[in-house]
Specification:
Layout (H helix, E strand, L loop, with lengths): L25 H6 L54 H27 L19 H4 L4 H10 L3 H4 L5 H11 L25 H16 L6 H21 L6 H6 L58 H9 L10 H4 L24 H30 L4 E4 L7 E8 L12 E6 L4 E7 L1 E2 L6 E8 L5 E7 L5 E2 L6 E4 L6 H67 L3 E2 L3 E4 L8 E7 L12 E6 L8 E4 L1 E2 L7 E7 L6 E7 L9 E2 L6 E4 L6 H51 L5 E4 L3 E2 L3 E6 L13 E6 L12 E2 L1 E2 L6 E6 L6 E7 L7 E2 L6 E6 L9 E5 L11 H15 L3 E7 L10 E11 L2 E10 L2 E8 L14 H18 L6 E5 L5 H8 L10 E6 L6 H10 L2 E4 L2 H6 L13 E3 L26 H16 L8 E5 L8 H13 L3 E5 L5 H17 L4 E4 L4 H10 L2 E4 L9 H7 L3 E5 L2 H6 L7 H6 L7 E3 L4 H17 L1 H13 L5 H16 L1
Parallel strand pairs: 21-29, 30-31, 30-35, 31-34, 35-36, 36-37, 37-38, 39-40, 39-42, 40-41, 42-43, 43-44
Antiparallel strand pairs: 1-2, 2-6, 3-4, 3-7, 5-6, 7-8, 7-9, 10-11, 11-12, 12-16, 13-14, 13-17, 15-16, 17-18, 17-19, 20-22, 22-26, 23-24, 23-27, 25-26, 27-28, 27-29, 32-33, 33-34
Helix pairs in contact: 4-7, 8-12, 10-12, 13-14, 16-17, 17-18, 20-23, 21-27
């Protein structure tokens, strides 16, 4: 990022500040062209040359307080003494005449505005000096006499003895007998003094000065005290006038006090000491004593103070402490007060006759003296650096952070000697921050010195720079560049933290902007959705009103005001809102023998259902069996609807409902019919809104609870992840936070470094990509616990991952790198985020749109879990004609391409919030009505090739290409053999084996070409390690268990179960689900243990053990529910016969549902007490994981993923503890009936004999995390390992 530095004119390229006082009129200018102050010194008149008028206007910025010498160092190399620049100096002197003539022209233009162009001898604003002709004929003596007469009282009334005067004169005569020196340091011509009788003028001045001083008896100390009093008055004056014109306000705002204004100014020339002409700008008018109360008063000029020789050495500490560096024309011109009108009308600034402003002028003169000392110091630095061959130098000599410096370059001894344009290009802190380019200008120092002003930020500890001509010619210190060390609180380490914070702030800003855009888009979407919903509600309300009208018309046709000898209403005339008495004659009616009679009523054809309930009482005023009730008619009633019953609502058994036609009485309209229907429509509309709000509130509360539970589960899982290898390595504190120091504790006895005499710790951050690089190897020391070794690490603020390995020596040797995966620990509270990885899954199944087995579940759930970690995930599958498109959002055809002579259409949509691309070859190979079973090897091979071709032609470049099982195994070798060399070079191939039973040849070839391979559990990976397809490549083979989608399988949000529950109310939730399950399947509503079996019926799933377990459970007075089907029709037929037999023999105790039923599976998981999974082999298994999610206890055979996830409550306590878990089920070994009986009997006995403990076990398994939280972390480790390799 290039820093836009303010172009600021350097110190020695500025015009000499001038104090100008214009005479009241032209005549005064002729009579009094020059005012000379010669109080203590005798010296020649010193001409002050100013910078060229074409110098660019800049806004100066003051430097900070200079530093002591010797602190900072410079990185530019010395150069042998260069040839003298005499020619350049001579040229500068020669050019002086041209400059003077130019100055005369510019000065004349300004003077003509006052009508005194030819006769004026003043110096104009641009710093131009008068030509020597302008000074000819000036009677200097007369001028001096006039000035002496107008000396301020403080001086005119003061006298000194001759000795003191002589001493003061000797101390301050610093430029005695000096020839004229212009401000650029060049020796000036003496012709400007022609016609001036200098000796005579000085003699007269001395005489008058002696006379003036002799009038009092004050000594030098008295004068100093007097001056101090004036300074005190100045301070009081400044304090009483804090406006923009005051010195205090100018200094406080870091604004220059003096500057050459852009308008013409009068000139008063101070000589004898070589004091420069100082221009008083508008913002500093207070300093020259022009008061706003009386702008016509004249200004008094006071001579300069003594110049001490030590001022040269004191310049850095004194001058810069005042915040006064050098002043240019722009100081006034760019001031925010520069446009204000001066307090003196026009240019008529007069010399004040009152002496109140004398201290102000004296202070200004002192500042001017300091500027001369500064100028002299810069000349010395320039000469010193030039004499030893240094090409550049800076001022102040000690560079501090958060300051302004002037940087000088001697063009004549650089590669840019012949260039007319000089620029500096630089940056800070090793070229790492704030790159800038600034133009340099010719300075007024003697020689070919160019300069510019630079601001040093407070975060800088080093300045790096080169010089160039704006094109291709560079001066770069012989390819070493120039650099300057900076005194700063910042160092390399703290600067790293600063960069982290800067980057974090930038990321936060970008994130905030993106979040705001998303919020606005979401708000617009929500508003549009709200409008659509409201329109739908209004349309629905209108439709309901129309339906009500039609029904009411039908009812009105059968309604009346009474039925003879059956019912009537008093009074006979009534309307909505009236309270009436309704009579009923129960004689010869269904309720004639009832003890009680109740009226159950409503209105408008039961619009609000049953809304009136009144008990009738016996009427003693009427003959016969008449009963009555007092009823308040609803205000909006057009028809009163009712029936009679023998009890209140909910307890009545017998009714008189007018032969199932109900009773209806016409109600007179209290409002117009049209208005009634408008009101009714509005009422319905409001009801819809109210119901919607209630639903949304309930959903929001449930979502908040769900999110909290998921967050707690994820945090718990992360802790378990960190503790999972505590027997090998862990950290203290356990959670590593950025910006802190942690201890790493390592137990080599459980690793390949067991027995090594020493262990070395090698660490870095952010997947070994941190800018600081790997840390130096650190020898580990014994920890306090004795069994572990310890190393201490400081974690950077921008670390999001801590990476480390261990070695047997400092040089390396044997490494413990976790089998090539390295050790990684996430870092929290980092200022940086892990860059997202781009993962593409190529598969032939995906739940829920194309699911056949567990493969489809894994593709969807793993993709969602990785995406939730912040990575970009996409899936490519075939576009079958049997897809369940109802679960695809925004499906549309986005492009097409041709491969192998076939057009392939590409469709895009969202499935479970995952981006999915559907490939549809137009040759019809996927229009066969099924996923598997039709020339699969040829179809899927074509699909794999076309998927890679799609990535190539679409310009995608994924980091990971993840293919699954034999069906997409060709992706591995096609990519490595073709596409990695032809446009897709950045990817790594990860291959997952879900089931080794199918496609061994394709799996073996994919194992040979992939970068990493996995299977779906650790134990299964060991079980198949000797397989011919895997054994040669076992070094890159890893077992990562599957997880379940905790959003799909969630008892708290499951719409297929009667009561939603969590671990807190698992007993009540499962009890309700059991009753619903028993009722649905026709089982007895008894308190019995229910064993559920949800499985494909294949030999792999242990169907002989399933049959035996059914009978064993029935023997123990339990109930059995089986859900599943067999792809083999023989097995399906066998189980059909078994179901017929069991249903007849054990009616109400067993139910076999030989089909696929997703809603029923949810109810079985929730309603069963146990889930049986007796697989002969099981790569992972999702059934036992889902069962525990719903609080059902798994009963499994110890194999594959079943062994990795189920820990027997009696036999696996220690194994569970090693995994950071508690026992969670019942398991058995072997494949015979004795094994299954061992586990099943213990489970059922626990249910009968230890019900409370069983319920606590249900709660425990629900609180274990079997989602994709942990597997997703393991897969990301694998992905990064593949990328590293």
């Amino acid at each position: 990022m290039e820093m836009a530095l303010r172009a600021q004119s350097p110190l020695c390229s500025r015009s000499r500040p001038v104090l100008v006082v214009r005479p009241a009129n032209a005549a005064a200018a002729l009579a009094q062209p020059i005012v000379k102050c010669s109080r203590f010194t005798r010296s020649r008149l010193v001409r002050c040359m100013v910078a060229s008028s074409d110098y660019p206007k800049r806004n100066p910025r003051r430097s900070s307080t200079p530093k002591p010498k010797g602190t900072a160092s410079r990185g530019y190399a010395p150069r042998p003494a260069a040839e003298s620049s005499t020619k350049k100096i001579e040229q500068s002197s020669t050019d002086e005449g041209d400059l003077a003539r130019s100055n005369v022209m510019l000065g004349s233009a300004g003077i003509e505005q006052t009508g005194t162009a030819e006769e004026s001898s003043e110096v104009d604003l641009s710093g131009n000096v008068p030509s020597s002709e302008a000074l000819e004929g000036v009677n200097e003596t007369e001028n001096e006499e006039e000035i002496d007469q107008k000396l301020p009282p403080a001086l005119s009334s003061t006298s000194m003895d001759a000795e003191s005067i002589s001493e003061a004169a000797d101390q301050t005569s610093t430029v005695e007998e000096a020839s004229e020196v212009d401000f650029s340091g060049n020796v000036s011509s003496s012709t400007a003094l022609e016609g001036v009788n200098e000796a005579e003028a000085e003699e007269k001045v001395d005489q008058k000065q002696t006379s003036a001083l002799a009038s009092t008896s004050m000594d030098v100390e008295s004068i100093d005290r007097e001056l101090e009093e004036y300074r005190g008055k100045i301070s009081a004056l400044v304090a009483s006038n804090p406006g923009p014109s005051s010195l205090a306000s100018n200094q406080g705002q870091d604004k220059p006090i003096f500057g050459v204004h852009e308008q013409d100014k009068s000139v008063i020339n101070f000589h004898e000491q070589g004091i420069s002409i100082v221009d008083v700008s508008k913002q500093s008018q207070l300093a020259v004593g022009v008061t706003e109360e009386d702008p016509t008063k004249q200004t008094t000029i006071i001579g300069e103070q003594d110049i001490a020789e030590e001022a040269v050495e004191d310049i850095d500490s004194k001058f810069f402490e005042d915040g006064q560096l050098a002043l240019s024309e722009d100081d006034a011109g760019t001031s925010k007060y520069a446009q204000e009108e001066p307090s003196v009308a026009g240019d008529q600034l007069r010399i004040s006759e009152d002496g109140h402003d004398e201290p102000e002028i004296q202070e200004l003169v002192q500042k001017d003296v300091n500027l001369q000392v500064l100028k002299r110091r810069l000349e010395e630095l320039a000469n010193e650096n030039y004499s030893i061959g240094y090409k550049c130098f800076v001022f102040p000599e000690i560079v501090k952070a958060d300051s302004v410096i002037d940087l000088y370059l001697n063009r004549s001894i650089t590669a840019l000697a012949s260039e007319s344009t000089i620029l500096i290009k630089g940056a800070f802190n090793g070229w790492r921050w704030n790159l800038f380019t600034e133009k340099m200008h010719r300075s007024e120092l003697a020689g070919d010195w160019w300069c510019c002003k630079l601001h040093i930020p407070k975060q800088a500890y080093r300045l790096d720079f080169v010089f160039f001509n704006g094109d291709t010619v560079y001066e770069n210190n012989n390819y070493n560049d120039f650099f300057i060390e900076i005194e700063s609180d910042m160092d390399e380490h703290s600067f790293e933290d600063f960069l982290v914070h800067e980057k974090q702030r930038e990321l936060e800003r970008l994130a905030a902007e993106e979040a705001e855009r998303e919020r606005q888009a979401e708000e617009e979407r929500r508003k549009e959705e709200e409008r659509a919903i409201m329109e739908a509600y209004r349309a629905q309300a209108k439709a309901e009103v129309e339906t009500m009208k039609n029904r009411l018309q039908h009812v009105l046709g059968s309604a009346s005001r009474h039925m003879d000898n059956l019912w009537y209403i008093e009074p006979s005339t009534y309307k909505g809102g009236d309270r009436v008495r309704l009579y009923y004659n129960r004689n010869l009616r269904p309720l004639m023998h009832s003890n009680e009679i109740w009226l159950h009523g409503g209105y408008n054809n039961w619009t609000d259902a049953l809304s009136i309930a009144e008990r009738l009482v016996k009427s003693h005023e009427k003959d016969g069996d008449w009963w009555y009730a007092n009823v308040t008619l609803p205000k909006s009633a057009l028809v009163l609807d009712w029936v009679f019953a023998d009890g209140p609502p909910g307890n009545a058994r017998n009714y008189d409902n007018n032969g199932k036609r109900d009773f209806h009485a016409v109600v007179s309209k209290s409002i117009s019919e049209d208005f009634f229907w408008v009101e009714e429509e509005h009422r319905i509309f409001k009801r819809f809104q109210r119901e919607r709000k209630e639903r949304e509130d309930a959903d929001r509360r449930k979502a908040e609870i769900t999110a909290k539970m998921k967050a707690e589960m994820k945090e718990k899982t992360m802790r378990e992840f960190l503790l999972s290898q505590k027997h090998i390595v862990y950290t203290e504190p356990l959670e590593v936070r950025a910006g802190t120091t942690v201890d790493v504790l390592y137990n080599p006895s459980n690793t390949v470094l067991n027995g090594s005499p020493e262990v070395w710790f090698r660490c870095s951050f952010n997947r070994w990509t941190h800018p600081s690089g790997p840390l130096p190897p650190q020898k580990m020391v014994n920890a306090e616990n004795g069994s572990h070794l310890q190393a201490t690490v400081r974690v950077p603020l921008d670390a999001y991952m801590m990476d480390f390995v261990f070695s047997e020596s400092e040089e390396g040797g044997t490494y413990d790198n976790r089998n090539g995966m390295d050790y990684h620990i996430p870092v929290s509270d980092s200022m940086a985020k892990e860059p997202p990885m781009h993962i593409v899954h190529i598969a032939v199944e995906m739940a829920p749109i194309a699911k056949v087995g567990g493969l489809g579940d894994v593709v969807t759930s793993l993709s969602r879990a990785i995406q939730d970690l912040g990575h970009k995930v996409e899936v490519i599958i075939p576009k079958y004609d049997c897809l369940n498109l109802s679960n695809v959002k925004d499906l549309h055809c986005c492009q097409s391409f041709t491969w192998s002579g076939t057009e392939i259409k590409v469709w895009f949509g969202k499935v479970e919030d995952i981006s999915v691309y559907f490939l549809e070859p137009q040759n019809g190979m996927f229009w066969v009505g099924c996923v598997y079973g039709r020339n699969d090897e040829s179809r899927f091979g074509f699909f794999c090739h076309s998927a890679l071709e799609f990535l190539l032609q679409s310009g995608s470049s994924p980091d990971i290409i993840h293919c699954h099982d034999w069906s997409s195994a060709p992706v591995a070798w096609l990519y490595k053999q073709q596409y990695v060399h032809n446009g897709l070079p950045n990817g790594r191939v990860v291959f997952t084996i879900h089931n080794l039973e199918f496609g061994a040849n394709q799996i073996g070839k994919a194992m040979a070409h992939c970068d990493k391979a996995t299977t779906v559990s650790y134990t299964y990976s060991r079980e198949v390690s000797r397989h011919g397809s895997i054994a040669p490549h076992y070094f890159k083979f890893h077992g990562i268990r599957n997880g379940i989608d905790s959003d799909i399988w969630d008892p708290y949000n499951d719409n297929f179960i009667p009561v939603h529950y969590t671990s807190d109310n698992v007993v009540e939730g499962k009890s309700s689900a059991k009753k619903a399950l028993q009722e649905k399947l026709g089982l007895h509503q008894t308190d019995s243990p229910v064993v559920g079996i949800i499985s494909r019926l294949t030999a792999q799933k242990g169907i002989h053990l399933i049959k035996h377990a059914i009978y064993r459970t029935l023997e123990r007075n339990g109930q059995v529910v089986l859900l599943g089907s067999a792809p083999d029709h023989r097995i399906q037929s066998d189980f059909t016969n078994l179901a017929r037999k069991l249903h007849g023999e054990f009616d109400g105790r067993v139910k076999l549902c030989l089909t696929y039923d997703e809603p029923l599976s949810h109810l079985i998981y929730a309603g069963a007490d146990f889930i049986l999974v007796p697989s002969i082999f099981e790569p992972c298994g999702l059934t036992q994981l889902t069962a525990m999610r719903y609080g059902s206890i798994p009963i499994v055979r110890k194999t594959g993923g079943l062994y990795d996830t189920v820990f027997d409550v009696d036999d696996d306590k220690e194994r569970a503890r090693e995994q950071g878990l508690e026992p969670n089920g019942f398991s058995f070994e072997g494949a015979d009936i004795n094994g299954v009986d061992y586990a099943l009997d213990r489970a059922i006995t626990t249910w009968y004999d230890a019900r409370d403990w069983f319920h606590s076990l249900c709660k425990r398994v629900m609180e274990q995390d079997w989602s994709w939280n942990r597997p997703a972390l393991d897969y990301m480790e694998l992905y990064h390992s593949a990328r590293k390799n």
